[in-house]
Amino acid sequence: MAELTSNEGKNLNIEVDGVCYQRLPLRTHVVTDEDDICDVAETYASPFLREGDILFISEKCVACTQQRAIFMKDIKPRRLAVILSHFVTKTPHGIGLGIPETMECALRECGTLRILFAAFCSVIGKLLGQRGWFYIVAGRKAASIDGPCPNTIPPYNQCVVLGPDDPEKVSRDIAGRLGFPVLIVDLNDLGGNILAASDSALDRGQMLRILQDNPLGQSGEQTPMGIIRRAMA
């Protein structure tokens, strides 16, 4: 069995609350809507899981199995999407809603009125020297939308990927198949969120601190899932 190692530029270990944890990325094939996420998890994670482990899976990986990846050529942004996308702050960590196609998807997912209200709140927030109000108001559906980046693995370098449907149920389904707790996570190099946990006893704040540096990576690593393991003393 191959040894699991950290992704390039990422640390294998992290200390949280005085305890050292390993974050072990799992390389998979390019997951598509022809895959069942439970099958993918069983194929790639089961051989490595040990007692006490927690499996964490990228929300994007889950969404891609749910036909939530839409080719850019199939998205026809309305005029409002074009205008609003110009006001989104661009960062090197992802496109977000900064192109008309992703903004159009946000309008569809969240509703026009909610996105307009979120944009208004964003303006007020910036006037007060505070950022992030847009996504607080728009909600997780908007924050979960990913656009194509230069290092995105094909065919997703031509797609907008929406957030997964019912991630809580997905986490429970996978956990039921594998017999290990499962997290569905939204991570990037700026931080992240725990979208779902199969076990309500899991401390989501602690889990996020363990994964805060995005051990799965954000380029072409092809490691959409990983294992959290308490390191041996």
Q: How is this structure best described in words?
A:
- The strands form two sheets. A six-stranded mixed β-sheet has the order 1-2-8-3-6-7, sandwiched between helices.
- A hairpin with a 2-residue loop joins β1 and β2 (19-26).
- The protein is globular and about 55 Å long.
- It is built from nine helices and eight strands.
- The two termini are 23 Å apart.
- With 233 residues, it is an alpha+beta fold.
- It has helices at residues 37-45, 59-64, 79-85, 100-110, 112-127, 133-138, 140-143, 167-178, 204-210, and strands at 13-16, 19-26, 54-58, 69-71, 159-161, 182-188, 191-197, 225-230.
Please describe the topology of this protein.
Blueprint: E1 13-16, E2 19-26, H1 37-45, E3 54-58, H2 59-64, E4 69-71, H3 79-85, H4 100-110, H5 112-127, H6 133-138, H7 140-143, E5 159-161, H8 167-178, E6 182-188, E7 191-197, H9 204-210, E8 225-230
Helix pairs in contact: 1-8, 3-4, 4-5
Approximately how much beta-strand content do the residues carry? 15-25%
Mean pLDDT across all amino acids: 91
Total number of β-strand segments? 8
Major sheet attributes: 6 strands, mixed
Q: What is the helix fraction of residues, given as a range?
A: 25-40%
Given the C-alpha coordinates, what overall shape results?
Answer: globular
